C-alpha cells in the first residue's frame, strides 16, 4: 500500500462512482473531465493497494474490496456536511495577540472598547523583550522603534516622553525595578544615571507606582501614565534620552485579515484619539 493517504475528495468521488456505476455519468454530475476522474480513481487504487473496480463494457462495478471500502465510507457524506456546516458557523471573535510594554498595555487596556462587530478580542502579551512578530509569536506589537524586517508593516503613532514624578515635591530618592536583564529602557536609564539614589525596589511596575504614591520615592513614568495618575506631580522636564516615537507593528501578510485590521484601527484610535 502506498504511504500516501487518500483525500476526502477522492473518497467522495469513489462513492459517487460506486453509486452511479458509470465513469461518464459521474464525470457529468461532478462537472469533471472524464480523464481526470479516471486518473484519480486509478490513483486511489494505487494508494489503497487494492483493485476497487471491475471495469467492463457495462461500466464500473465494485470489486469485493470496493464494496468493503464503500461500506466503511457509508457515513462520509454526512461527515462532509457536518464539516461544511462547522466551517460556515460563526465561531465568535478572534483573539488578537498584542505585545507591548507594561504601561502601554495598561494604558491601552483602559481605552479599548469591545468590538461591536464581534471580530476580535485583545489578548495581551506584555513584554519588554520584543517577541518575534515576523515569526508570528504575536499578531500586533507596539514598539519604541520602527521594524527593520521587510515582512513587517509599521505605522507611527505618537511621541512618548518620560518624566520623574512624585507624590510631593519634598520626596527624594527613587523607586525602581531591581537591576537585571530585561529591564525597559527607562529602568535601565534610572539604574545607570541615578542608581545611587534608588531607595527601594519592587518587582512590578505597578508596585513601583504605588510606593511612589505612598511617598517612598520618586518614579520615572511615561507621561501618558504619570499625568493620568491622581496624586502625582511632575518633578522634571521630559528626559531627552528616553523620548521616542511609538510604532504600531504587524506582520505584512496578516495586516489585512479582518480581525487584525479591526484591531490595528482600534489600537490606533485608542492611543491617538486626536
TrEMBL record:
Segments forming a coiled coil: none
Keyword Transcription: yes
Family as reported in the entry's similarity comment: Belongs to the LysR transcriptional regulatory family.
Source domain of life: Bacteria
Name recorded for this polypeptide: DNA-binding transcriptional LysR family regulator
One MF annotation (Gene Ontology) recorded for this entry: DNA-binding transcription factor activity
SUPFAM superfamilies: Periplasmic binding protein-like II, Winged helix' DNA-binding domain
Keywords: DNA-binding, Transcription, Transcription regulation
Domain HTH lysR-type span(s) in chain numbering: 6-63
